[in-house]
């Protein structure tokens, strides 16, 4: 939002004293009125015409327009500088060391549509790049389509697969796993025109070599875990959430948060402060593994 101009008020007592001084015409009163604001029509000495020279009308100076200011949340513009991408491993918990001072903030679930909406505002105001792991059955992913789609198109927001109904994959058959991933994938394709592959985050972190291999059969070749969490899959206090953010927002970490409860929406400013203090930039997983600003249209 542009910064609104502020206007200094003239003290009524100062205005009265100033007028009295003009009426009295005494040097003492004039001296006492030096602190009053000059009348708006008074010319400054520099603008007084020089004796003997033709008097010219001064050229009015244009009124300056307020300079638009960045949001107090502003952190970055676009993706950070990154090395040439290499394919992701079949199981990742953090980013490659060569990405430098970069962190991936990944947001799961989407139980609360208003929290997803607030995360999108946060992304727009700050430039922070987010990877959402979508649980497709929650209405938040269609409720917020119009606001989210431009961010997906630009590559600032990435959408990946967190299944359709959030089951523990280790409890499902092969067909059950494939059905969960396929329904979510169809939502991403039909609503946003992108694929979530190859990144799958198993709900509750429940995975095995068997579940990984089943996911890979339909293109989900990178099981994406994490190296630190905001701890907000359930309801907690802002102080606890910030303590976890302080602990885990570090270079090359993949940090997990949740769009389930509004606590996180109260501390976006403090999260930005942590990132600034540590000179961290954010990146999506697509930025890191496919190239800055990449979005995988289908």
From TrEMBL:
Chain segments carrying region Disordered: 35-93
Stored InterPro entries: Glyco_hydro/deAcase_b/a-brl (IPR011330), NODB_dom (IPR002509), Polysacc_deacetylase_ArnD (IPR050248), TAT_signal (IPR006311)
Keyword terms: Hydrolase, Metal-binding
GO CC terms: membrane
Keyword NADP found: no
NodB homology domain span: 101-298
Transmembrane regions listed in the UniProt entry: none
Biased composition range(s): Low complexity: 35-56
Compositionally biased region (Pro residues): 57-69
One function term, GO molecular function aspect: hydrolase activity, acting on carbon-nitrogen (but not peptide) bonds
SUPFAM superfamilies associated with the record: Glycoside hydrolase/deacetylase (SSF88713)
GO biological process, alphabetically ordered: carbohydrate metabolic process
One Pfam family per UniProt: Polysacc_deac_1
Protein name from the UniProt record: Polysaccharide deacetylase
